[in-house]
Amino acid sequence: MPNLRSSYDYEDLLACGRGEMFGPGEPKLPLPPMLMFDRITEITEGGGKYGRGLVRTELDIKPNLWFFQCHFQNDPVMPGCLGLDGLWQMVGFYLVWLGRDRNVRARALGLGDLKFTGQILPHARKISYTVDIKRVMRSKLVMAIADGTVSVDGDTIYHAKDLRLGLFKSLPGSPIEPTS
Prior knowledge:
Layout: H1 10-17, E1 39-44, E2 54-60, H2 80-97, E3 104-110, E4 113-116, E5 126-138, E6 142-152, E7 155-169, E8 177-178
Antiparallel strand pairs: 1-2, 2-5, 3-7, 4-7, 5-6, 6-7, 7-8
């Protein structure tokens, strides 16, 4: 297992997406354009609101980001599902960062509640994501449950409760199966 750090820059995230960070068989972050943050500013196993883990990330907003060009014509806004996906990406990174299992793939499993109270427009400067880990389970299915928020320029605009993400065995040519 590599030396775990408490923060990661953009080049580190790209290395994770290429499978170079945690080793062969480890889940990867998506590569751009689907990678929804530029850096992990803080990651810890014992921190956060529930004392079970915390991840904080940031995305610098640029008016030419791909989604502004197609969502919506003459009314550009970041799709809410991309902010939500960013939260799931963070939970998946956290599970892998903990050193859970090999030859698995991370998959979103759902969430309990989601509220949007704002939007992300091209003139914004920065998105800040926070994920507070509530629980990590290791049984037939390895799964984490977390709460998350998305803020734009300091104002929290998404509240997600009970984000669920699991790790599944990845066997070449077959469907994914829960880890054991």
